[in-house]
Amino acid sequence: MKTGVIGIGAIAQVHLSVLEKMGADVVAICDIETEKCRKANEKFGMSARVYSNYTEMLDKEALDVVHVCTPHYLHAQMICQALKRNINVLCEKPLAISYDQLDMIEAAVNASKAQLGVCFQTRYGVPAEFARKFFDGKKITSAVANLTWQRDAAYYASGDWRGKYATEGGGVMINQAIHSLDILQWMCGMPKSVIAHISNNSLRDVIEVEDTAYGLFEFDGGNFIINATNAAKYSYPVSFSFHADGDTLDICSDNIIVNGKLLVGKDGTPVIGKEVWGTGHTKLITDFYSKIASGEKFPIDFAEASKSIKLILAMYRSNGEKVNI
Hints:
9-stranded mixed β-sheet, 25% strand
């Protein structure tokens, strides 16, 4: 399969590292700063053709797969342009930043012969896979996720799209905690309503989006809670807790605690990229290519990836009031 990558920033380095290890045929890469493309070719030993215009790349190259690794606000239009050409798309989170973008992508998916996959790589980690199997056939009635990370002014200054609703779509929820929220709904099911509070406590003169969020989601027979902030001075491990049928499972990083007994899950997969991104990208990207090759359906498609966006947009609408999802 012939592969193209749009956006050669930080997360693209992870994708390209995985593709290199897979022996994928990366034939074209695109970024408005073409120097990034030159450096990527050199770093990963590629001879991919370089583009500064992504539609030109999509038109000129006979691509089977394109990876979308651009700022959030660009995801929807790039997904749709690729699907319009029947090119399979693997997009970084978030899938979209508005209801209108979700509608646009859904129409493109329905009209295309190609597949769309979204990077929720946390699902491919050992703890999430263990929890999914452990609670198979059980009804989870309570769950909570906690994310306490550090994102300072320098982080937001690293890209002019960061920290703005129009281009990032939000703050800690849509950028960092979206993975935790995805795991909660994947395990518990899609909730019916939410009461949420968001605030900007540490960077009021720097960003317009939230640095802290709380959401109480209700579903049939239970609820789940998410607490998220990037106002800390240090990034701590993300944690989850689940309860069902008398069993409690706690996850902190790779540590799994079942009913008070510590289990440690390690799969030996090397970490690529930031520690906080984990090793799930390797499994996810490999699975996406496997599904494309076999003609099977990739599990994290539009329908699945749109759930977390709908939950986050409902949180942003809530302002302390109960809203339906």
